[in-house]
Design brief:
about 325 residues, Spore Coat Polysaccharide Biosynthesis Protein SpsA, Chain A, eight-stranded mixed sheet, two-stranded antiparallel ribbon, 12 strands
Amino acid sequence: MAQMTPQIPTVLLQSRVLARQLVRLLIVVPAFVIAGLLLMVDRRRPAVQSPVPAQSLRQAPEVELSVVIPFYNPGDALRPNVLELVSALRTDGISHEVLAVSDGSTDGSEASIADIDGVRVITQPRNMGKGAALHSGFSQARGQYLGMVDADGDIDPTYLCDYLQRAKAHNLEVVYANKYLAGSQSAASSLRKVVSRGFVTFVTALFDLGVTDTQTGCKLFRRDAMAKVLPNLREQRFAFDLEFFVAAKQAGISGMQAAPVELRERLAGSSVGVKAILRTIGEALSVFGRLHLTGTYRGETATVTALPVAQPVHLIPELQAA
């Protein structure tokens, strides 16, 4: 007599699928309402021409890798982080530039890296957010590849050397750190881990990007990929990373690969707080609204709220002439 195949695993699988669909429904429906309201508020702000010079990224690259390091009052963590990066780039023989963007810092940390060869400091006139600092850095970058890494000391900046080799070997447009990938490690606090998991669930329900970690602050982009996407990005704070992946998908950028990363204990203070969490959720909803209710990520809009122009402190002669 033939044995009957157990049905319990199938039932459990179906239950999980239904549970995911229910969670997504509970998130997406109110998200449309809130996103619509946020867009109405956003449209009442004065609209000006985007300050991001898209044409600069369409010029021929002059170095192999540009690394943008956004920072805000990092204290003593900044200099050793930058030195570690520069040393690794030189050891690997990578022609490079490092653009360290001060997002309105008031702790004098810019002076701690002013004497490092190959490092250019750019200052934002006031604190505007990580995304605004990245806009400023990427728009002035001269590299064939553009990298970004946090200044807080929790991510080894030398990962960018490995990411560059991955991108070149496999003709990738984007290589991004994924702390959930096999081989990754994290010394982040329990609070940060809980917040991160919650945000992943939220983002997956809204966007279904196929990217399980949009926010870890170490990424590498091919110049032409960033040129397609940067002019359409609007977020000035932590949702910049999420918005990039959303806009990249709309632009048909598919050559993206996750890579392992180790998150070390932070050397600078944590930026995770209730206000930051709520603001990032609001920004994600704004991205959701732009995706479904406007043509922003299809390049159909040309105006955004003004970003104050960053002031360069140390300029390379070629950029001064431009």
